[in-house]
Amino acid sequence: MKPNFSLRLRVFNLNCWGIPYLSKHRADRMKRLGNFLNMESFDLVLLEEVWSEQDFQYLRQKLLPTYPAAHYFRSGIIGSGLCVFSKHPIQEFTQHVYTLNGYPYMVHHGDWFSGKAVGLLVFHLSGLVLNAYVTHLHAEYNRQKDIYLAHRVAQAWELAHFIHHTSKKADVILLCGDLNLHPKDLGFRLLKEWTGLHDAYLETQDFKGSEEGCTMVPENCYVNQQELEPFPCGIRIDYVLYKAVSGFCISCKTLKTTTGHDPHSGTPLSDHEALMATLCVRHSPPQHNPSPTHGPAERSPLISVLREACTELDLGVAQARWWASFATYMIGLGLLILAVLSALVAEGGIREVAILLWTLSVGLVLGVGAVYLFHLQEAKGLCRARAELQHVLGRAREAQNLGPEFEPALFLLHQEGDKTED
Amino acid sequence: MKPNFSLRLRVFNLNCWGIPYLSKHRADRMKRLGNFLNMESFDLVLLEEVWSEQDFQYLRQKLLPTYPAAHYFRSGIIGSGLCVFSKHPIQEFTQHVYTLNGYPYMVHHGDWFSGKAVGLLVFHLSGLVLNAYVTHLHAEYNRQKDIYLAHRVAQAWELAHFIHHTSKKADVILLCGDLNLHPKDLGFRLLKEWTGLHDAYLETQDFKGSEEGCTMVPENCYVNQQELEPFPCGIRIDYVLYKAVSGFCISCKTLKTTTGHDPHSGTPLSDHEALMATLCVRHSPPQHNPSPTHGPAERSPLISVLREACTELDLGVAQARWWASFATYMIGLGLLILAVLSALVAEGGIREVAILLWTLSVGLVLGVGAVYLFHLQEAKGLCRARAELQHVLGRAREAQNLGPEFEPALFLLHQEGDKTED
């Protein structure tokens, strides 16, 4: 790599709100989005909530001359809603579907049916390896009583862990998407602390856009104003995050967001605001220890956030087990009713009602049986995330206890795989 | 790394056949397995089909003095059945649960409920990074008419892709497990061609054990003799596979299998045979191009196996879509019956029978609705694997068309992430 190496990367991210039959003016918005993307000619366009594969195919055709490479991440029953358009060839791609993603019986929320995931795209740009990740986490429907909190924390952990394990040879890591997490939320802190990613909004040299970088703002006519009532300037839940490894440095030159309108002041492109970042990657002389020289006091945020996440997952496991036990009792009740009704029918009681109730009880036993199995699986998924977290926590504590002279231990924890030269 | 660096690694792999209530002499076999492992003191013990977490906890306690590190991979409703015991500290672990794993309505086969997965363990051994993978793929119940073939091919692909994306900084890669694939099966060839892993049985300098290295043999009293009838010496479906990256070389000094008995000639430890390998990792001078200098002719096995896998996945997608369509018709039929019966009940016909049929139709509509959603998801999962395969196939073809002078293109395809130095 030449010492004066420099790479400019223009990135676009948008949650497109593309729910067939439900999202307003979908076709028109997709058309205008296509026009805008063609005009702006970004390096990389990362989209979420493109739920209809027809919409992706439409955009693909429209964007082909400007963005020859594209990929749609398929998963779950509906899909992940994630897709990407790129000016540069995609070398490789893969995806990870989150283990936990809401409840199938919460049909009106729909997240479970979508198969939320993180997509990975590998690019080779002028000899530099860029790993770009795009994701969409479980929505937050009630901030005061959030029944999906443990799932979202587990998703944030899986996302961080997936990035950690798949980016060990990447020079630059980029993560864009709708995280459904506010900047101070546990999941976001966990993600940032474990991956070391930087937040473009906080680090940019030049910001233009909505107040406090919000990506859902009351000015947007598609936004449910009632939901935003507690947040007068809106909420920031969509992000551009990045980091570079030793030998490179990355900075955010400019970050723009739309402000509740089309970039050309028409009706908005979505109910979310778009993020447009110009990133600059430069060569920087390799340092002995590229991780900042943390002292134990500075390392504690990782330990503290890991501990907090473990507690949240503990609560989630207890809740899942409670539901599984509840379902067991309900199955027992259903079987009891079945037995009583069978006896009634045999004795020639009120047959019509008995038969109806009998079939309803069979339905109850089968339905609740499925709920039981689901929560058993939920508990297993949460235990899995907790075990991974606890392992990392244990190793972070070890590194802290060993003191600053054992800094490399923590560095290895973060950058596992760096070969120790004898 | 010192030039005379050398590392000896003793590895044990066994599918434990640990199904609670169903597997014969489970407790006794676990006890004898524990004694044997303690006595032999391997570096790494990788086990499959430890379905009960209690069995894992029992082994953990028993093996603690010899194997201080252990991990149980939780997934699905029952679990993945995978666990590991190690003499060396586990630096990191994670897992990937296969997208497709049979059908929930094939309850008697049970694979869907188990959440089959691949587990990854990262070790740092004398400055060397070892990525050890353990896995168990979907069982084969009928080789002549295998309804799970597309799922197993997709699993083999996901396994290969997971290894590919998570091992980019590993010096040595080890994969052990019950692949439920014969050596010439499409899934196994796909895995070997895409990862470049070597088969310990084919490469070992010294082999002792069952004929042709079989891991399910007719001599084993727990094996269903009828299933093995077409294979007089048994089948080889459990493997130890490995590779080292540039700068290291790895060889298999010895490979042993049990031969249908306990290693001390008692009743066997499982219905599968155990694999015991002694691997030797040595320093080797870095080569300019560590991938063997393939000509286009030699590269064709990858292209050919990718093409074959694409065809198999195509068939799987068509089959999944057929089932989804069939389910749609059945839902229509159920709704029609419902309407007719509702009319009958309203007119005061044979009420008892009508009510019973009415509720049965509701059950039919709901049940078949679930089948429809399942096959929709199955088709999406198969399309996802096919898209990844097609992308790799496209790039492999490009590399082939560019001719031998463009060898680095294929090397980059295999070893993506290796930085091109300017």
UniProtKB/TrEMBL annotation, chains A, B:
Enzyme Commission code: 3.1.4.12
Membrane-spanning intervals of the chain: 322-346, 353-374
Ranges of residues in domain Endonuclease/exonuclease/phosphatase: 14-272
Catalytic activity entry: 1-hexadecanoyl-sn-glycero-3-phosphocholine + H2O = 1-hexadecanoyl-sn-glycerol + phosphocholine + H(+); a sphingosylphosphocholine + H2O = a sphingoid base + phosphocholine + H(+); an N-(acyl)-sphingosylphosphocholine + H2O = an N-acyl-sphingoid base + phosphocholine + H(+); 1-O-hexadecyl-sn-glycero-3-phosphocholine + H2O = 1-O-hexadecyl-sn-glycerol + phosphocholine + H(+)
Cofactor: Mg(2+)
Locations listed in the record: Membrane
Record flagged with keyword Protein biosynthesis: no
Pathway the protein acts in: Lipid metabolism; sphingolipid metabolism; Sphingolipid metabolism
Similarity annotation: Belongs to the neutral sphingomyelinase family.
Membrane topology: Multi-pass membrane protein
SUPFAM superfamilies in UniProt: DNase I-like
PANTHER family named among the record's database cross-references: PHOSPHODIESTERASE, PUTATIVE-RELATED, SPHINGOMYELINASE FAMILY MEMBER
Example of a GO biological process term: sphingolipid metabolic process
Any one of the GO CC terms: membrane
A Pfam family: Exo_endo_phos
Keywords: Hydrolase, Lipid metabolism, Magnesium, Membrane, Metal-binding, Sphingolipid metabolism, Transmembrane, Transmembrane helix
Signal peptide feature range: none
A molecular-function term among this protein's GO annotations: sphingomyelin phosphodiesterase activity
Name under which the protein is recorded: Sphingomyelin phosphodiesterase 2
UniProt entry tagged with the keyword Membrane: yes
